[in-house]
Structures are given as structure tokens and as C-alpha cells.
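user: can you give me the structure for this one chain? C-alpha cells are fine.
assistant: on it. calling the predictor now.
[tool input]
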Amino acid sequence: MKFNFQAFSGALFITAVGFVSCGETAHSGSHTFHTPIEYHDFIVDQQNAIIRQMLKLNELYDSGSEAGIRARFDSLQNTSKLCLQNIRSLSTYDNDSTLKRDALLLFQFYDTIFHAEYPRMLEIFLKGALASEAELLELNSIVSNVGNREKILQDELVKSQSRFAGEHRFEFSPNGE
């Protein structure tokens, strides 16, 4: 049985292009951002860290051992938790809280599903050919539900990123083009 978790991973590889010289700063723990691009890119980097872990997990579904899959899954959960903490610790940029808020909603969603839905999906997947028809239907339902909820949150984040980029005069492409 082969299941592709990429179908709902929502891999947004976002690229911000351009340079804006601004005096504003923002902080995230030990990070200081001197430009809106640095601030934006920090959020993108956090999301990409999670996406990389999701893709590595997905690769193991084709050829990895159960122990390897479980270890990668633990790594995904840990990465998600760390990235969520990083987003929570962001200050606003130039008193703009919308980008942080929408990023936080998406990262909270990731952390929740990696501790709620993903363990059940993993359990069903690891049964392989022994998974019942009902379990496969449940798996498809979970995937569909997670994908739909994720799309809404990602769309909101992309809107915030586009608005933020426009207000701070740098280019943003949600497709990384």
C-alpha cells in the first residue's frame, strides 16, 4: 500500500525578492529583523523546515522501516513544536500583527494535526495490506479533512504575505516563482 502524504502537505515554497531599506526592527527570541523581507523570510523558513520534515517522512513511506518512519515522525513533531515556538515569540513588524497572526494559526494547526490526526494516519498506514476497508476510508477522510482545513489557513497566510509585501514594497510569489 502506498500513500502519498504530499497530497495535503501544502508545500508552499515562497520566495521574497527585492530589497527595502527600513529603519523598523522586529524580534523573535534571539533574532532581530531589520527589514520586512528578513521578517517575512523567517516565517517562510519556519514553514519550510516543517515541509522538509514532511517530505522526508513521505520518502520513508516508500522504502523505510517502521522504526525509521516512527523516528522521522518524532522529528516532524519536534520540528513543528520548535517552529511554533519561534512564531509565537515573534514581535509584530512595524505594528503589523496580521502576518504573525495568520502564520501562528497555520503553525498551531500543524502542531495539532501532527499530534492528533497524523498518529492515527500513521497507525493505519503501517498496517499496510492488513488495513481494513473501513480504516482506508477513515484514512482518506482524515486526509481530505486535514487538506481542506490546511488550504483555508494557507490561503489566509498567503493573503497576509501578499499584503505585507505590498505594504513594504517587495515582491512576493506564493509559488516561489
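assistant: here you go. The two ends are 34 Å apart (CA to CA). Helices lie at 36-63, 66-88, 98-115, 117-127, 133-167.
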